[in-house]
What does this fold into?
Amino acid sequence: MRALRRFLGRRHRLIATLVAASAMSCAILALRQDTASVTVLVAARDLSGGVLGTADLIPAPLRPGTAPDGALRPGTPFAGKVLTGPARRGEPLTDVRLLGPGLLAAHGRGTVATPVRVADPETARLLSPGDVVNVLAATSAWEGTAPASVVAEDVTVLATPGGESERGALVVLATTPAQATELASAQAGGRLSITIGPRAG
It folds into this structure.
C-alpha cells in the first residue's frame, strides 16, 4: 500500500512538473509574440508642419496591429515633402499627412488640391486640416478696395503647411477644378480671406 502511494505521489509530481513546464513554454511564447514589433516612422519632436527635413522623422517600433494604415516605413523618402499640419513627438506619420495624392484619398473623384494665400496670417493660424471654409476675395480698385465676394464655398482645408510671406499664409484646399480656376483668378487680382464654418460630417 505504501509502495502504491509512493508511486502515485511520484506520478503526481511528474504530472505537476510537466504542467508547469507547459505553462512556462506558453508564457514565453506569448511574451515573444507580444514583443514582436513593426517599425514605422514617427515624429522625432513636436513638428509645426511644413517642409520635412532628414532629422524630422525617426524609426520606432510598434506592437503588431497598432500601426495605422498607410504608416510610413523606414526607407520611405520624406525629406523635402510637406507635412500638412502639426504632429506631436512620437506620432506615427501616414501617407495622408503628406502633401500628395494620398491627401485626396478621402475626397471624391474630381477633387484637386489647391494652394492659396490667405492675406491675414493670424486667421490662417486658426485653421486645421478638416475645417470647412468659405473663401472671399476683395479686389483692388482705383478708389480703394471693392467689397469682398465669395469665390469658393464650403471647401475643406487639406493642409496648413505654414510659411508666411508678404502675400499671406499658405493654405491648401480641396476644391473642384472650377473652384481652383476661380481662386487662381481672384488671387491674381486681389486679396483672399476666409470664414470658418462647421466641419463636415
Notes: The mean pLDDT is 79. The first helix runs from residue 2 to 35.
